[in-house]
Write a structure and sequence with these properties.
Layout (H helix, E strand, L loop, with lengths): L2 H20 L10 H18 L2 H9 L12 H18 L5 H6 L3 H11 L4 H50 L7 H52 L4 H9 L36 H7 L1
């Protein structure tokens, strides 16, 4: 659970309602169905008109990521890749086949299978990077749906305000109906501007952050598996993969230097006991 997302939206809504209460207003005055209908209905309608169905539905499927983002665990992934690199150097890449068969992540599974099949590293990189960029573009298009909703909502709120004023002008001889038209005019504007800046834009930006984390994880997979395919020394591979980590992350990557590797090539020298809890055994025990 992303507590900052929960706290952020609660604080924003509470600030609006509390401000109205402190000014002596009635919070229930903000509850106005006609204004809600024109802003939300008009915004969704405009998005449906411009967005392909696949992207639209994907946007709402990833919406929960705002509050419950995927657990990418990049540090643990690097540990696994370094263990796999050591296994491949000692027993050959075919020894990674049981790990690939039990892998649930489609991207990681495909990367492992490409390395196990002996595909040339440049080809492996081309295939995986193409899939990565294609997926990133698809996910970012889904996140942009909410950004585009933020662009439409304020304008449609102004349309609601104009419609409310039209109602007011058409009932100047009936003072009893003037209040409804004025309420629609102002509340529609609040709904449009408020939803854009409190809901839609923050959601779009948070989703982009989560998507970038997923892209970074797949970049780690690409570099790590290519390092295995080229028999890159564990020390060098560990340093390369750690460069993907942010300063705020806890880096518990088991580098060669912290495990007392010997040998000039930095590839062998770890005790056999290190593989008693291999990545595949760790997942099965979990």
């Amino acid at each position: 659970m992303d507590l900052l997302s929960v706290i952020g939206i609660a604080l924003a809504l509470a600030s609006v309602t509390l401000t109205m209460m402190l000014d002596g207003g009635n919070v229930l005055a903000l509850v106005h169905f006609p204004a809600f209908l024109i802003v939300v209905g008009g915004t969704v309608g405009a998005i449906l008109l411009q967005t392909p169905p696949r992207v639209f539905f994907r946007a709402f499927r990833i919406l929960p990521w705002v509050f419950v983002p995927p657990a990418y665990e990049s540090v643990k992934l690097v540990d696994w890749i370094l263990d796999w690199a050591q296994i491949a150097r000692r027993e050959g890449v075919l020894a990674l086949e049981p790990i690939a068969n039990d892998e649930s992540d489609p991207f990681l599974k495909e990367a492992l299978n490409l390395v196990i099949d002996g595909i040339p590293p440049p080809t492996v990189r081309a295939i995986l990077e193409t899939k990565l960029h294609s997926r990133e573009e698809y996910e970012m298009a889904a996140a942009r749906v909410f950004e585009q909703m933020a662009g439409y909502a304020p304008t449609i709120g102004i349309i609601g305000a104009v419609l409310g004023l039209i109602t007011v002008m058409s009932h100047l001889n009936d003072p009893a109906n003037l209040g409804k038209g004025i309420a629609t005019a102002f509340v529609a504007t609040v709904y449009g501007v408020g939803s854009a800046n409190i809901i839609y834009l923050p959601i779009a930006n948070k989703l982009r952050t989560v998507i970038r984390r997923g892209v970074r994880r797949q970049e780690i997979i690409i570099e790590g598996l290519l390092g295995i395919a080229t028999s890159e020394p564990r020390l060098h591979l560990g340093m390369k993969l750690q460069s993907f980590m942010h300063d705020g992350e806890v880096e518990t990557v088991k580098t060669a230097s912290s495990n007392g590797e010997g040998g000039e090539d930095g590839g062998d020298g770890l005790p056999e006991d290190e593989f008693r809890d291999s990545p595949i055994d760790e997942r099965q025990s979990a």
